[in-house]
Design brief:
rod-shaped; 1 helix
Amino acid sequence: EDLQYMSQLFSAHEKGCAQAARTLRNWVD
């Protein structure tokens, strides 16, 4: 269960980073 929580947290982090990177690219362009 703990591992599942960690992987959930990690995937949420990945999504957040991807979104932030996209936003940053749009802002820079």
